[in-house]
Amino acid sequence: MKAVIPAAGFGTRLLPATKSQPKEMLPVYDKPSIQHVIEEAINSGVDDILIVTGRNKHSIEDHFDKSYELEYALQKAGKDRVLKEVRKITDLADVCYVRQKDINGLGDAIACAEKHVQDEPFVVLLGDSITMSKIPLTKQLIDVFNKYNKSTVAIREVSPDRVNMHGIVGGVNIHDNVYKINDLVEKPNWSDAPSNLAIVGRYILTPDIFDKIKQTEPGFNGEIQLTDALSKLDEVYGVKFEGKVFNIENRLEWIKSSIDFAMGDDEFRDDLIDYMKTFI
Fold first, then answer.
1. β pairing state of 122-125 and 2-6
2. Which CATH code of 3.30.70.1450, 3.90.550.10, 3.40.830.10, 3.40.640.10 fits the domain covering 2-277?
């Protein structure tokens, strides 16, 4: 199965940090946020990856490309551990790129991947959404997709005041954490929402989604919304996710994500805890 990572947006909520660099390249602890996303795909058994980019996103391509000058300098300096890490990034996966010429919504970004994925189901991982769980979220989706063979999305409960920030689904719980979805709405008001179950930013889509995107009129913000295209499919399933999700387009979530990943590093964990205690 191939993966598609949309990464073409401007990241305006994180300005001025994103004025000259993509939000997907902002560091989350010790690596760019998009590297965390790609590692989730790889840990789920997916290593054929298409990144949908836009203008001023060259640093994403550079990050996953080979850097001969840097590797030579590290080798000459005897920095073998760092050199190994740098080379590991290049060898992570087969990464290809396509440019979304006009920033016209997530649905339009997914449409850019049609030639790459062809007539096969594929994974979508949003480039500014990082998850943490024992079993990678993408792997959880793949397992459910293999059972039903229908488009599948990751969902989680959100508070009523955050409903209007997400695509929201309504559905029936059919087994453990699996829902059969019967309603999808992009960023509704709480009074109009079918539930408080929000789409997390991970999808497995069947190739018929491309025809549905072409049939979809501009919706929220005048853009082609993937949620609206999904609502046109005959069957969609949801997997309720209980792990952690960080939306990197939000400053507070960005900071929280770095703290969480740093807490998993035994070298700095105790020092970080001592430092945070100075603010309490």
1. parallel
2. 3.90.550.10
